[in-house]
Specification:
The protein is mainly α. The chain is built from three helices and no strands. It has one domain. Helices cover 61% and strands 0% of the residues. Helix 2 packs across helix 3.
């Protein structure tokens, strides 16, 4: 874990696993925002339905200029 992550973790004062998950989400969003400036191509993020709303909220918060589409699929038998 880099020094920047340690500072953020200390500042957020969250449990370690939750903080690491949050940091990975933010890193992914930042990377997609970085790529969107350089590449005009779609990106796909696949996540469990239980965290989909978190991804949507974080995109709106940290990368408001990045357009996205959230799709929920339910498989029934």
């Amino acid at each position: 874990m880099g020094l920047g992550k340690v500072r953020i973790k200390r500042r957020l004062d969250l449990q370690a696993p939750l903080t690491l998950l949050f940091l990975q989400t933010i890193q992914t969003i930042a990377f997609i925002a970085y790529l969107r400036v350089r590449v005009e191509a779609p990106f796909l993020i696949v996540c469990p339905l239980s965290v989909l709303h978190n991804w949507v909220d974080e995109f709106k918060r940290f990368a408001p200029k990045v357009s996205f589409f959230a799709l929920q699929c339910f498989i029934t038998s």
